[in-house]
Amino acid sequence: MGIIQIKEKFFETLKRSPKLTVYLCVAAVCIAALLFMRAPPEKEETSPKTYETVETAVQQSYEQRLESELEGIISKIQGVTNVTVMLTIDGTEEKVYVSDISESDSKSESKTVITGSKEALLQSTKYPNVMGVLVVCGGGNSAAVKEKVVNAVSTVLDIPASKVYVTNAK
């Protein structure tokens, strides 16, 4: 039996049974509704990824800025050449906005202050903590150079010297 014959038989059956036609139409509408209802969750899944991408980019720019500033300052220490710095940080940058607190008899309510340009008023930015620093540099095999580099990094970042490791470059 060919496709044309199956199609003809199908339409003949539909002509003989109006109830079957109604059932098939209802089934088609239900399937279309189910497919339509499944589409929005896919869109919702993409927006957190975008947020994570932005958050990761901000974190990386903060790390890169710190690393480049450290490389610049460490390279000025006597006996140090070819500096490469890697650091690890805990968390991400956090923005704190000004809030207006109104208190009534039973509860207090906090609202973020919005400026005339419809933007929240930024109070401060909290940067993540530096967990550790690796410095690879020429001259890193000298105890005197290591001590100078460790002291400089621990002072600038306000971390204990035990979280700073200095080694000699190739």
Structure description:
This protein has 2 domains: 3-93 and 128-168, GMP Synthetase, Chain A, domain 3; 94-125, no CATH class. It is of the alpha+beta class. The longest helix is centred in the N-terminal third of the chain and has 57 residues, at 18-74. A 3-stranded mixed sheet has the order 1-6-7, with helices on one face. Strands 2-5 form a two-stranded antiparallel sheet. The protein has helices at residues 3-16, 18-74, 143-157, and strands at 81-90, 94-97, 99-103, 108-112, 122-126, 129-138, 164-168. The chain is 51% helix and 26% strand.
Show the helix and strand layout.
Elements: H1 3-16, H2 18-74, E1 81-90, E2 94-97, E3 99-103, E4 108-112, E5 122-126, E6 129-138, H3 143-157, E7 164-168
Parallel strand pairs: 6-7
Antiparallel strand pairs: 1-6, 2-5, 3-4
Helix pairs in contact: 1-2
Strand content: 25-35%
Task: List segments where confidence is low: pLDDT < 50 over at least 5 consecutive residues.
Answer: 41-47
Shape-level CATH architecture of the largest domain: 2-Layer Sandwich
Q: Tell me, what's the shape?
A: elongated
